[in-house]
TrEMBL record:
Transmembrane segments: 20-42
Family of this protein: Belongs to the transpeptidase family.
InterPro entries membership: Beta-lactam/transpept, Beta-lactam/transpept-like, PBP_dimer, PBP_dimer_sf, PCN-bd_Tpept
GO cellular component, one term: plasma membrane
Keyword set, alphabetical order: Cell membrane, Cell shape, Cell wall biogenesis/degradation, Membrane, Peptidoglycan synthesis, Transmembrane, Transmembrane helix
GO biological process: one example: cell wall organization
Entry-linked SUPFAM superfamilies: beta-lactamase/transpeptidase-like, Penicillin binding protein dimerisation domain
Protein name: serine-type D-Ala-D-Ala carboxypeptidase
EC annotation from Swiss-Prot or TrEMBL: 3.4.16.4
Topological type in the membrane: Single-pass membrane protein
Domain Penicillin-binding protein transpeptidase, residue spans: 348-682
Keyword Transmembrane found: yes
Amino acid sequence: MVVVKKKKKKAHVPFRLNMIFFIVFMLFSILILRLGFVQIVYGDDFKREIERTEDITVNNPVPRGKMFDRNGKIIVDNTPQDAITYTKNQGANQEEMLVVAGHLAKLIEKDVKKVRERDKKDYWIMKNPERAKDKIKKSEWDLFTDKQLNDKDLYKLQLDRITTEELKELNKNDLEILAIFREFNSGFALTPQFVKNKDVTKKEFAIVSENLQFLPGVDTTTDWERNYLFGDTLKTIIGKVSSSDRGLPSERLEHYLARDYNRNDRVGLSYIEEQYEDVLHGQKAKVKNITDKSGNVLETIVVSEGKRGKDLVLTIDMDLQLAVEKIIEEELLAAKKTAKTTLLDRAFVVLLDPHTGEILTLAGKQITKDPKTGKREMLDFAYGTFTTSYNAGSSVKGATILTGYKTGALHPGDFHYDSPIKIKGTPEKSSWKNFGNINDINSLKVSSNVYMFKTAIEIGKGHYEFNEPLDINLQAFDTIRESFNQFGLGVRTGIDLPNEQVGFKGPLKLPGFLLDLVIGQYDIYTPMQLAQYVSTIANGGYRVQPHIVKEIREPLLDNNELGPIVQEIKPTILNHIGAKEEWLKRVQEGFRRVMQEPGGTAYDDFKGAKYNPAGKTGTAQAVYDGPEMKVYKERNQIPPEVMNLSLVGYAPDDNPEVAMAVLVPWAYEGDKGHHANTVIGRRVLDAYFELKKQRMKDASKMDRSTQLIERGTQ
């Protein structure tokens, strides 16, 4: 048997595997070479890239918007001032900051008044760590080791054991370093904090600028300060702005933080500055700080340039405001001398455009004593025109007559006999003289109380007999008050400023008090409410919302001119009183007679006025409740009865362009009378129309000059 041997085939697998291994080897070799190249050549760059992180976008503040009067005069501006700031890195430690503070203290003078005893103790511990450590007893260290005491406990013990003598070791230079270090610590990470922004000398600014490379975190910049070009005039209405030290008010901290404010930003704290904060604060510059893991700033990128706040054009006429304030000051001092009273200390004037609600003048003055010198001084009290309220007296009688018409209790031309009224068990009530048979118009002219009493009784569907109880529906209180509200009396006027007061209602509903209500001697009102009330009568029955801002404008750079209008504040009609034109004309005629006819209660002071004024006077018997009340309480004495004086009016009577309210609280006691209300009112309206006449003359002269120039160039 023949055995045939088969020839073995040559295997190809080992060759293929070898090729694969070779290729893989080559790829790994290339990868290793590439990695080595990257690490050697670009390793540091990539390491920095991995470690760096876009951390915080900081909003840097910009100057606030300016304020102008209605004629374009600057009222509030910003004054630039040199400043030195410190921006804390996230990784900055106390020792490094202290070193920088020491270097900076050699270059600038720093006020040390803000340094507290606690600050001194903290600094002493940092400066004397070993001595501070020795103040802890061995037994206390043992307790610390056993975790029965913590770091805070030990630190408090160190603070408590620093003596007064040890604190005296800190010299003037130490205190300056401490004052600067304190400012460093009061800032937040990556947010510039002012170290010094007042009284920075040119030398200080220059030398710090030259040494910034040795002062990490320190920078020189320009800050701003509010500048009031008319001094204290209207300053209380303009309001306050927080300092860089105070920053955001704690009570509204979350509100502002939610709107991208920094904690040390300055914001409006009161009145116009507060009310229009969103407009005035501007568009902040946004800066993105790129930091490494240690918190060091690697790069700063400007995200958006800042833009200062928008400007406000106020409705106020500053020339008129200044004239009115001067009148108030002069007449207030004169009245105080005449009345010989220590209680008279204030007076108010409000001027409105009755058709638009624009506030032309918002003036208040108050006499106070300087607590340090004891000298008498006259302070701005303009905000008192809408935050303080008083019995106004007969000025409100126009609302009483119109309420009588609206309720059907009174008809145009109705007569009532003016003689004293007596409700059983109460004092007799009367007018300042008995006028006999009198109608609605003349009741306003001569200011008949009795006519108003009988109107109120009719509104309450009451039955009156002399020296008998007055049977009346006390729902009349609500009826009259609701009607008065339609004029603006006893409700918010809607003025675009915070803290407006609505006045107070008399608490009891008794028949006699209803009679007091309709002559302005029960409920109390603000001067602004009186101005809105008389404006409503002047313009035909429309209650218009008063406002102090006329326009919001874009800021113009590097000059004091007005920019384009962003928003114009237009008139807002709050309601109509629902009175017929015939009724309003009768009240307007009564107001005209008050000032223009003999026998009118304001005629003696307004006779001869060419601008044809109309209005109503008021005298209210009240109980003193002013700042001297504390004296009466200390002496356990009842405060005296006083007379409040008021005046409401408008002019011209046939086409009113200005409405006015004057209020002089606590004007005099007993019979030591004067009529400062009408004297002030006459001088104020004279000033308004004289200023208007002068401006028309100036405009005419300017037009003629322009025409001559144009002719000369032709």
